C-alpha cells in the first residue's frame, strides 16, 4: 500500500538502487519493495507466514520463505551485466537464496524466469559445513551478506552468526568455503570467542554484518557480541580488530581502538571507500568511521514532522516462537488429570551454572504451544518474559469449558540468555517441557502446581 498504510515487523537488511529499496521484512517472512517515487510498498517474495520449504522455485509472491535477514544485489549469468538478482540470507532455513528480478541463469542452473525465488546454497541443516557442492554445505543462521563480483574474488561473503564464522560462496559454481572463525567440526556451533588471528585460529562471536571494500580488497565484519568491528584480508585470511574495545558502551574517541560499540549489527561502505557506516544497534545510532583519518562520528538523522514511513503500529504484536537449538533437552512430564474450567499452573524452577546471570536486555522468555490442539490456547497468555532467575514466573493455563479433545499435550518452551560469572562467554540455552493432559468431565480435585525443573 501507500507509505502511510504499509506496515512491517522487524525489518532487517536493505538493498538500494536508484529509487527502489528492497527490505527484508524478517518477522513477516516477506521481501518488500519500496518505490520512493510512487511512495508505494509491495511484496516481491513470501506469503506472510513462515515457510519450511528448503528448495523453492515458485514465483516470489507464491513462495513461502523463512526469516530473511539480509539482501544484496547480484548479476545472473545472462549476457548483459546488470544487477538482476537479489541474494538473500535466509536465516530461518540456514540457507542462501536468490530472487530473480529479471530472467537469467544461476551457476549450474537452467534459464530461470523473472520472479523465481529459490535456494542457491545450504542444505537447510544448521551446521558449519563447507562443501564444493552448494546444496551439501550447511549454514547456521546466516545474517549478513556482501558481494565481491570482480575477479579473482567472485563470491558472496556471509556472516554466519550461529557458527561465529565468515564464509564465502562462489558466484561461479556455488562452492562454500571457510574464511575466518569457527571450528573444523561442522557440528560445533560453540567455537566462539574474541581472538585476532588467521583462518580458524581467529574467533568471532555472533557476527551479524559484513561489507566488502573493493578499494582495499578487505572485508569488514560487525562482530556483534564482541562489540567490535573487525577487518579480514581474504587473501591471507588474517582477521584483526579495527575498532572497539570489547566493552558494550558508547564511547566516541579520537582512536578507532578506544571507541566502543554495543552489539553493532550492520555495515555499509561508501561509494568512494572512505567512510564505513555502522548500525550500532543497542546504542541506537549510525556511526561513521573514516577509514583514512581514523576518526569516528555519529551520523545525524533529520526527519520531517510530516514524514510517515510506516503504517500504524499494531495494538497487539504476536511474538514469534524462536527455534529451539538441536542440543536443547526435551523433558516429558507425567500426565495430569484436569476438568474443564480448572487452572493448571507451571512453576519455572531453572538453575544456571554457578555465578552465571541472565544477559541484561536479552529476551529470555517462555512460550506455550499445543500442536494439533490450538483450541487450548484460545484466550490464554501464550508467552512471557523471564526477567530474573531468582524470581521466575508461574505460567497459568485454564482448561476451556468446551473441550474439543479429552487428550492433549501442552508444550512449554523456555529460552534463557545468560553470561558466565566473568562475562567472558554469553550463550542461549533452550529447553522443552511436554505436559500430557487427560481431560475428564468429572470434577477433579485441586491440581497441584507442576514444577518445571532443570539445571543447565
UniProtKB/TrEMBL annotation:
InterPro entries: 6-blade_b-propeller_TolB-like (IPR011042), NHL2_NHL_rpt_dom (IPR045302), NHL_repeat (IPR001258). NHL repeats lie at residues 195-235. Coiled coil: none annotated. SUPFAM superfamilies: NHL repeat. CDD domains: NHL-2_like. The keyword Repeat applies. Pfam families: NHL. Keywords: Repeat. It comes from the Eukaryota. This is NHL repeat-containing protein 2-like protein.
Amino acid at each position: 500500500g501507500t507509505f502511510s498504510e504499509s506496515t512491517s515487523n522487524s525489518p532487517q537488511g536493505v538493498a538500494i538502487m536508484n529509487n527502489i529499496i528492497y527490505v527484508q521484512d524478517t518477522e513477516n517472512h516477506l521481501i518488500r519493495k519500496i518505490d520512493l517515487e510512487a511512495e508505494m510498498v509491495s511484496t516481491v517474495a513470501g506469503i506472510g507466514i513462515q515457510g519450511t520449504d528448503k528448495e523453492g522455485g515458485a514465483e516470489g509472491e507464491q513462495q513461502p520463505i523463512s526469516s530473511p535477514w539480509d539482501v544484496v544485489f547480484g548479476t545472473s549469468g545472462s549476457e548483459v551485466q546488470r544487477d538482476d538478482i537479489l541474494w538473500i540470507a535466509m536465516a530461518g532455513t540456514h540457507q542462501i537464496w536468490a530472487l530473480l528480478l529479471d530472467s537469467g541463469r544461476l551457476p549450474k542452473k537452467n534459464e530461470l524466469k523473472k520472479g523465481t525465488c529459490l535456494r542457491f546454497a545450504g542444505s537447510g541443516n544448521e551446521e558449519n559445513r563447507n562443501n564444493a557442492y552448494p546444496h551439501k554445505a550447511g549454514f547456521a543462521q546466516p545474517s549478513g551478506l556482501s558481494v565481491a563480483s570482480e575477479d579473482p574474488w567472485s563470491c558472496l561473503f556471509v556472516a554466519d552468526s550461529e557458527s561465529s564464522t565468515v564464509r564465502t560462496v562462489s558466484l561461479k559454481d556455488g562452492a562454500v568455503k571457510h574464511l575466518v572463525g569457527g571450528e573444523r567440526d561442522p557440528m560445533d556451533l560453540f567455537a566462539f570467542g574474541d581472538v585476532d588471528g588467521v583462518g580458524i585460529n581467529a574467533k568471532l562471536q555472533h557476527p551479524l554484518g559484513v561489507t566488502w571494500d573493493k578499494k582495499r580488497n578487505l572485508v569488514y565484519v560487525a562482530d556483534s557480541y564482541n562489540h567490535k568491528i573487525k577487518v579480514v584480508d581474504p587473501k591471507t585470511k588474517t582477521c584483526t580488530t579495527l575498532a572497539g574495545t570489547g566493552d558494550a558502551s558508547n564511547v566516541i574517541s579520537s582512536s578507532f581502538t578506544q571507541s566502543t560499540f554495543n552489539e553493532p549489527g550492520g555495515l555499509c561502505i561508501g561509494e568512494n571507500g572512505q567512510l564505513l557506516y555502522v548500525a550500532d544497534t543497542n546504542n541506537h545510532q549510525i556511526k561513521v568511521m573514516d577509514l583514512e583519518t581514523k576518526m569516528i562520528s555519529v551520523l545525524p538523522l533529520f526527519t520531517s514532522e510530516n514524514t510517515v514511513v510506516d503504517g500504524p503500529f499494531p495494538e497487539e504484536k504476536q511474538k514469534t516462537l524462536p527455534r529451539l537449538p538441536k542440543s536443547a533437552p526435551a523433558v516429558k512430564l507425567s500426565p495430569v488429570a484436569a476438568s474443564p474450567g480448572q487452572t493448571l499452573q507451571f512453576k519455572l524452577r531453572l538453575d544456571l551454572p554457578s555465578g552465571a546471570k541472565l544477559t541484561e536486555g536479552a529476551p529470555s522468555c517462555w512460550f506455550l504451544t499445543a500442536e494439533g490442539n490450538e483450541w487450548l490456547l484460545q484466550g490464554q497468555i501464550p508467552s512471557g518474559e523471564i526477567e530474573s532467575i531468582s524470581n521466575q514466573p508461574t505460567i497459568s493455563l485454564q482448561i476451556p469449558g468446551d473441550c474439543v479433545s479429552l487428550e492433549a499435550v501442552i508444550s512449554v518452551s523456555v529460552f534463557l540468555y545468560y553470561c558466565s560469572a566473568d562475562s567472558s562467554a554469553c550463550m542461549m540455552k533452550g529447553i522443552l517441557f511436554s505436559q500430557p493432559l487427560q481431560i475428564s468431565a468429572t470434577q477433579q480435585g485441586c491440581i497441584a502446581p507442576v514444577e518445571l525443573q532443570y539445571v543447565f
